[in-house]
Amino acid sequence: MILFEEPFLDPTQFARDWVMGPGMAIRNGVLAFSPGHDEGYCVGTTRRTDFRDFSLVADVRIVSAAVGFVLRAVGPTEYYMVQFDLANNPEVVWFHTFTPEVEEGYRLELVPSRVVPRAGAWHRMRVVVRGTRFDVYLGEPEETLQHCATRQDPHETYRQGA
């Protein structure tokens, strides 16, 4: 299947295909997330459902403790989340699987990360999903991204979603 990449170049298409939350903007063709001082997080979701394999790139800034992407959401309690959590363990990438079908509706795998983000600094984060394989990259904006971690979902929980 073709890898879907959103270039974030056409503001009209962006407004049509995405629901933008506070702290979310497009900067030089890259999705940028940074919550305000009174917001704990910011959220952007796509309305598109015509892809399965994809690459999502965003510039992120960890204001307090963590940053993460929700991926392949099929409902409000059914999705993957890839996260860096500086408050609990900055040395790993957190791979969450939220699904009501398993005990307590949740699975977590911690994968050692080759790159550790810094609080307050801008980072470019990229997650590439092909089938049930997730590759996470991190780096400084405008620089080469470093591969951080890979995870394969052995349960093949979600094959597609927003």
3D architecture notes:
The structure is a single chain. By secondary structure, the chain is mostly beta strands. Helices cover 4% and strands 51% of the residues. It is built from one helix and 13 strands; from the N terminus they run βαββββββββββββ. The strands form three sheets. Strands 1, 3, 4, 6, 11, 12 and 13 form a seven-stranded mixed sheet that branches. A hairpin with a 2-residue loop joins strand 7 and strand 8. The longest helix has 7 residues. It is globular, with a radius of gyration of 15 Å. The mean pLDDT is 83.
Short descriptors:
4% helix, 162 residues, mainly beta, four-stranded antiparallel sheet, seven-stranded mixed sheet
What is this entry, summarized?
The chain has 162 residues and is mostly beta strands. It has one helix and 13 strands, in the order βαββββββββββββ.
Overall strand count: 13
Helix proportion range: under 10%
Report the end-to-end length measured between terminal Cα atoms. Answer: 16 Å
Rounded radius of gyration (Å) = 15 Å
Number of helical regions: 1
Q: What order do the SSEs take from the amino end to the carboxyl end, as H and E?
A: EHEEEEEEEEEEEE
Mean pLDDT: 83
Q: Decide which structural class fits the backbone.
A: mainly beta
Biggest sheet, in brief? 7 strands, mixed
Q: Beta-sheet strand percentage?
A: over 45%
Low-confidence stretches: none
Q: How does the overall form come out from the CA principal axes?
A: globular
